[in-house]
Amino acid sequence: MSMAQDLNPVSWGAQDRYQAHFIVKILTGCDSEDYLARPTLQTKGHFATKKVTGVNWVGGNLADTLNKDETLKTMITKLPYEDAQIFVEPTKGGVRIFGRWKDSYNFTMTKELFAVYDRIALSIKNMSCPPPIKS
Fold this sequence. Notes:
Elements: E1 17-18, E2 21-25, E3 37-44, E4 51-59, H1 61-67, H2 70-77, E5 87-91, E6 94-98, E7 102-103, H3 111-126
Antiparallel strand pairs: 1-7, 2-6, 3-4, 5-6
């Protein structure tokens, strides 16, 4: 008796995908939308030769702060395209910094990528909230 291999495997169960998350604890009082930031990457080349040539952050007040940081922009342009896709989202009591999902062969945290995450975390920590409007 021969066992036929299923040509349409079910995608249930554990997946070989990983994602690093950095959580920055923040003081409450700021509007959570202030901490939202997503990059718009300017690139040149295609596929494996795609290089980041610039970055523009969109979102709340944090995005404005990150756009003013020329050192951060330079650091991001030195990263591979896949690593330069960094997202910042508010969570309950903190802010999450993370990248895209990667398989086990491509999942790494280089010193350069860690330095970018660390600089974003510092910007989050240094961000001041506007005083509440009294009515």
